[in-house]
Amino acid sequence: MLGRQQDPIVAIATAPGRGAVGMIRASGVGLAPLARALCGSQLLPRQATYGPFKDANGQVIDKGLAIFFPAPASYTGEDVLELQAHGGPAVLRLLLQRCLQAASQTDEATGQLRLPHLRLAEPGEFTRRAFLNGKIDLAQAEAVADLIDATTEAGARSAARSLVGAFSLEIEALLQQLVRLRMVVEATLDFPEEDIDFIKKADVHGQLQALRERVAEVQARATQGAILREGIRVVIAGQPNAGKSSLLNALAGAERAIVTPIAGTTRDKVTELIQIDGVPLHVTDTAGLRESSDLVEKIGIERAWQEIRAADAVLFLHDWPRYRAADAHGQAYRELDAQIAQQLPAGLAVLQVWNKIDSLAPDDQAPEGLFVSAKTGEGLQALRQALLDRVGWQGAEGLYMARARHLHALEQVMSQLEVALQQLQAQEPALDLLAEDLRQAHNALAQITGEFTSDDLLGVIFASFCIGK
To answer: With 90 as the cut, is the pLDDT of residue 75 above it?
Structure first.
């Protein structure tokens, strides 16, 4: 693996398909001969040079811009060559093949093979090299992918803040504070013969309390950042013909789900990505919940319950005219609603939503919840805001992107700090255990920026990147 990491690499760095401009990117040690072979002359560092890109026979493949970034002043910290050509797939493939071909040929200036081990880059390998060469930390590397994948403007801005190091600076400040605490505790262990109570003199308990509060603040912002990155999984659930598909269409602003007056029209889930105040919402319309003998409908109902159990929030939609009916049909409707409510998972954020507000009479005894009209759009804005409030959204201002692994690491830090505080509060604190608690908290925190990170984790992270990035 180490040998492969040292190989020079090349890839098409722009998205598949046709475009005005396409880019080939190469990275490695000693790319100058490759640049000469492709461009026919020595390139000046960090200056765009316009000219032809030629094949092995001297025929022009295309004309475009070439930029050479000598190490270490490049994205990866190695020599980097970028060729900006016309964005046709065939042209880019020809240029890529020419790079691989030229690398295995002899350079006229030196008489040696140019780059005999040049190979195609793996997903995320350019950014992985930037991390391994100290150009960015792991949180910043992940922000590269998050910026590319952002589906909202708020998400893109938050990813950009992480990319320039806002999140990393927060973590670094916590690490420095934790290091100072560790120094005090370990100094006490190293010099037990000294009649000095380092722990009380340095107010380790007060410092530990302050550190825990700062970690809690970062944890809260990271949780918000995770919501912005991952989005919120929202399921619209309820009895058949309650207006679930109509509500999905109203929230999406388009006809995404089929709507008919026939009960059981929706047999399978329909998911639409929408956004509210910059927060991506994955809203899923599901089959109506009821007892059914229809095999296909039963499968749809089971899938509906699977979606409900995996959701961050559920919009439990009720048909208000049918619910308030005083006849036997109304009684049966209310009983089934109660049965569904009992089966909803404990702890799940559930919003009671009453549809068809346009039929609400002035003297109706309105139950608790939100009244909307999927038909006219009335009440939808209040529903959107209530949904964000229910999942704890506090706004995107000043946020940075965060991932599930970041939240897990911060939870580990908080857990170790809690144990450390309990240790300090004992009548005779075991300082060796306290030092170990702080060490483990340090390691968990350092995993966020990649100071302590396994190769397996790096493989998982960078495998999700696109090739050429």
So the answer is: yes
